[in-house]
Amino acid sequence: MVVDLFNLLEIVDRLKHLKRTGWVMYAVAECETVASHMYRMAILSMSLAECRKDLDIDKCVRMALVHDIGEAIIGDITPNCGVSVEKKYIIEKQ
Q: What global pTM score does this model have?
């Protein structure tokens, strides 16, 4: 269990250094990392609590914090990368 947790933390740590592909493709000087994107989305999700009573904010925050973890392994694949939705699904599943 502890080993699995440390393995997960090592994977998540990679996201601090992984620049978002779209930003790199457009030569943005200070690219956002995947980790900073996830953090911003979690904060945005939390801020919806006041105006969107119909949302499960806890679920939204959890989704924001985990939905890009796989990119630490497969990279940040955008629609501009030329990878079909089907192929991306297969890559992510592996």
A: 0.81
CB contact at 8 A, 48 and 64 = no
| Domain extent for 74 | 2-93
- The whole-chain average pLDDT of the chain stands at 91
Q: What mean pLDDT is predicted for residues 66-85?
A: 87
Q: Decide if 25 contacts 77 (C-beta within 8 A).
A: no
Residue in this structure with the two tokens 């939390």, named with its chain if needed: 46
- Pinpoint the alpha helices (H) of 1-94: 2-14, 21-25, 34-47, 57-66, 71-74, 85-93
Number of domains in the chain: 1
**Residue for token pair 């992510």:** 92
CATH of the domain at 68: 1.10.3210.10
